Amino acid sequence: MKTNPANLHQIIERAISDPAFYDLIKKDPAAAVIKLNCSLTEEQIKALKAIDYGPLDALPAAFGERLI
Description:
By secondary structure, the protein is an all-alpha fold. The chain has one domain. The protein has helices at about 5-15, 20-25, 30-35, 40-50, 55-65. The relative contact order is 0.17.
């Protein structure tokens, strides 16, 4: 399956701006992609599952607020 690079960009932008979507992408990236009516390759879905979200979740504490 070929994917449009804009789909990945759309998913990342949504994850940054929508805390509920960010939580969904951490829990179930495939469901998050479907929710946006986008398509990603299996490799891209696996990559999203393999991300260590811990450092991303901890980043806002360094600034004293929730960034995402």
